[in-house]
């Protein structure tokens, strides 16, 4: 009988044919010790002992030491809960070498020596390879310590040349090397270069790629009957002008392993490349929306090969990514491509008429292409990408366009028409309490002396409009210092806090509250759950004046729960940016958020099933739900989950008196 060590040396580790492999990794949320936690592979296809040796060797691994099986008891209990293995099942391990039962067919456990991906600029060439196939296409990806990852998968033809300013066209091919990130879509700002340590992969107009993270690849050859996993389909934010799915903030390994989901993160065209509309049939706009829909079609065609269920897809996004979720909920072109949606700080969506879009950008186009129709399109297709990117900074407003194809109306108006007029979906949406602080960036200093002065500053920077300033001051609902409370007004300790509140309201909170209320009033969604996150952790590069987090070990230090302060919590990617655990509750809160997002993806309900939590040994989340339940939001009972750890509560929509003043003055 050949030794497992010899077999590992004889069989190249670089590529392993899938025979149903699951990464067994107990993600307890403590991101500082991920690399030290044990990891193993469960191979689902029953094999003889010798074949098990060969299979492990094909992964560059050996059969697991039988003395280490107990390290994976929680994961094996969960596999039994899923019905993938039996509670009393015996697996092939290294201790079976001299057994007389070697000819029996058993599932088996392999070691997993793949490294932990712990930094943004990881050298992916050292990760062992794995492959999966579907519909005539083979995808070669990688295995790491926590999950399986497939990076830089093309989902559409490169939108260059004759395809610039055209709707996305499907990618076709038979082989994909999904072993490194693609470039981000061309843009300026945070991801233009790698100044902030976010984008070592560069920018390109050829950027329509996606990344898949999964805890398991099914045994496609055996046509395994094991249930497929829910899919979480991520769309990044960035105001439609910046951002990328290759941002390691959205590395899906932690979320996939903790929540047992398949995570898909996409790029889509930005700024002028994704949104230019000249109010004709040749340059109609909405290319970014077509990208997202084409990526969802890719999911329908291929995701089962990665263990994902194409009939259980939840789209989710934050900020402008939340707006993308709204665009897809209201787009007839996206019908049937997803079943759930999560809007994180996404407002109520934005859209503009084609004529408005054209009027804002045409003066900046004419110096380069002053013809019309197809001649203008061909001229634009011949301009350099840099020239077009420069136009982005000069003028135009990069939004979805009402074109009666992708977008029928302003999103909130479309939702108000009720369920037959939008895509059938279960919805979850929510806010951060002080989003305006980070959205202000450095436009306003914390030591601003008076509220009127602050509002005038915000007026000059374009954060507020004159009518909004006038209404704010006339309402008496925003008071500063020791002024007397009256008529439900709010008293703020200083002008900076009052300013943060009004910018939060104008930018996101009132929009999001209105979206929830209008949807509930007409029964637009199959179900709806609304939240406010009461805990935040600032992104490493997005923490103005160092006020969006609290110091390590000092949880009582006042801080703002800022815009984007939920992203590390959802994706669990603190470790990729060397972020410390401030207090233990950071870990437990992150666990709970990932468990709730995963529960919503599985069932459409964020209340996590206790049997599931027990099967996974997720005790901190069991503790949270032992005395609390997240209520469904309805017009009769507009309850909102106020999420914190160790105790969450139930409240109502935020800022309603303020929003009653501001709603008539919000832009579409």
Automatic annotation (TrEMBL):
<keyword id="KW-0732">Signal</keyword>
<dbReference type="InterPro" id="IPR029058">
    <property type="entry name" value="AB_hydrolase_fold"/>
</dbReference>
<keyword id="KW-0378">Hydrolase</keyword>
<feature type="signal peptide">
    <location>
        <begin position="1"/>
        <end position="16"/>
    </location>
</feature>
<comment type="similarity">
    <text>Belongs to the type-B carboxylesterase/lipase family.</text>
</comment>
<dbReference type="GO" id="GO:0016787">
    <property type="term" value="F:hydrolase activity"/>
</dbReference>
<dbReference type="InterPro" id="IPR019819">
    <property type="entry name" value="Carboxylesterase_B_CS"/>
</dbReference>
<protein>
    <recommendedName>
        <fullName>Carboxylic ester hydrolase</fullName>
        <ecNumber>3.1.1.-</ecNumber>
    </recommendedName>
</protein>
<dbReference type="InterPro" id="IPR002018">
    <property type="entry name" value="CarbesteraseB"/>
</dbReference>
<feature type="domain" description="Carboxylesterase type B">
    <location>
        <begin position="146"/>
        <end position="660"/>
    </location>
</feature>
<dbReference type="Pfam" id="PF00135">
    <property type="entry name" value="COesterase"/>
</dbReference>
<dbReference type="InterPro" id="IPR050309">
    <property type="entry name" value="Type-B_Carboxylest/Lipase"/>
</dbReference>
<dbReference type="InterPro" id="IPR019826">
    <property type="entry name" value="Carboxylesterase_B_AS"/>
</dbReference>
């Amino acid at each position: 009988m050949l030794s497992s060590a010899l077999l590992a040396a004889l069989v190249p580790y670089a590529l392993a044919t899938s025979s149903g492999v699951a990464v067994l990794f107990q993600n307890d949320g403590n991101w500082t010790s991920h690399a030290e936690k044990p990891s193993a592979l469960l191979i689902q296809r029953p094999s003889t002992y010798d074949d098990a040796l060969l299979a492990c060797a094909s992964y560059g691994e050996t059969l697991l030491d039988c003395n280490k099986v107990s390290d994976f008891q929680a994961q094996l209990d969960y596999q039994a809960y899923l019905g993938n293995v039996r509670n009393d099942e015996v697996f092939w391990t290294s201790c079976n070498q001299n057994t007389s039962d070697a000819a029996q067919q058993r599932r088996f456990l392999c070691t997993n020596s793949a490294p932990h991906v712990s930094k943004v600029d990881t050298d992916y060439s050292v990760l062992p390879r794995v492959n999966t196939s579907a519909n005539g296409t083979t995808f070669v990806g990688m295995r790491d310590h926590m999950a399986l990852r497939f990076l830089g998968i093309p989902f559409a033809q490169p939108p260059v040349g004759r395809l610039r300013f055209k709707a996305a066209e499907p990618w076709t091919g038979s082989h994909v090397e999904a072993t490194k990130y693609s470039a981000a879509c061309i843009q300026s700002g945070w991801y233009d270069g790698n100044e902030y340590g976010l984008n070592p992969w560069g920018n390109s107009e050829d950027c329509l790629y996606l990344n898949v993270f999964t805890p398991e690849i099914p045994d496609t050859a055996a046509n395994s009957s094991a249930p497929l996993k829910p899919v979480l389909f991520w769309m990044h934010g960035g105001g439609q002008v910046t951002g990328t799915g290759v941002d390691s903030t959205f590395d899906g390994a932690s979320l996939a392993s903790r929540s047992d989901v398949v995570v898909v993160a996409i790029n889509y065209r930005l700024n002028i490349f994704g949104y230019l509309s000249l109010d004709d049939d040749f340059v109609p706009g909405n290319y970014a929306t077509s990208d997202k829909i084409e990526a969802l079609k890719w999911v329908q065609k291929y995701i089962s090969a990665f263990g994902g269920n194409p009939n259980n897809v939840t789209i989710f996004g934050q900020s402008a990514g939340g707006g993308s979720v709204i665009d897809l909920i209201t787009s007839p072109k996206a019908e049937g491509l997803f079943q759930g949606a999560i809007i994180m700080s996404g407002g109520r969506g934005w859209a503009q008429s084609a004529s408005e879009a054209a009027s804002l950008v045409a003066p900046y186009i004419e110096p380069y292409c002053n013809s019309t129709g197809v001649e203008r399109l061909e001229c634009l297709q011949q301009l350099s990408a840099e020239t077009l990117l420069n136009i982005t900074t000069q003028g135009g407003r990069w939004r979805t366009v009402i074109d009666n194809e992708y977008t029928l109306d302003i999103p909130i108006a479309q939702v108000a028409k009720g369920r037959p007029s939008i895509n059938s979906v279960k919805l979850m949406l929510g806010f951060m309490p002080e989003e305006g602080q980070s959205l202000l960036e450095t436009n306003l200093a914390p030591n601003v002396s008076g509220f009127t002065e602050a509002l005038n500053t915000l007026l000059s920077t374009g954060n507020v409009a004159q009518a909004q300033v006038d209404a704010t001051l006339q309402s008496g609902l925003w008071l500063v210092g020791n002024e007397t409370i009256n008529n439900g007004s709010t008293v703020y300790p200083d002008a900076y806090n009052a300013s943060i509140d009004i910018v939060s309201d104008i930018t996101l909170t009132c929009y999001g509250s209105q979206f929830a209320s209008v949807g509930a009033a007409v029964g637009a969604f199959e179900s709806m759950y609304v939240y406010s996150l009461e805990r935040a952790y600032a992104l490493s590069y997005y923490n103005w004046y160092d006020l969006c987090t609290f110091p390590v070990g000092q949880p009582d230090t006042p801080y703002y729960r800022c815009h984007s302060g939920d992203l590390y919590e959802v994706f669990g990617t603190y470790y990729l940016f060397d972020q410390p655990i401030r207090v233990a509750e950071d870990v437990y809160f992150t666990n709970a958020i990932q468990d709730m997002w995963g529960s919503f993806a599985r069932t459409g309900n964020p209340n996590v099933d206790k049997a599931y939590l027990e099967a996974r040994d997720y005790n901190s989340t069991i503790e949270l739900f032992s005395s609390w339940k997240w209520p469904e939001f309805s017009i009769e009972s507009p309850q909102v989950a106020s999420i914190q750890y160790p105790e969450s509560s139930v409240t109502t929509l935020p800022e309603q008196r303020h929003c009653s003043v501001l709603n008539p003055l919000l832009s579409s």
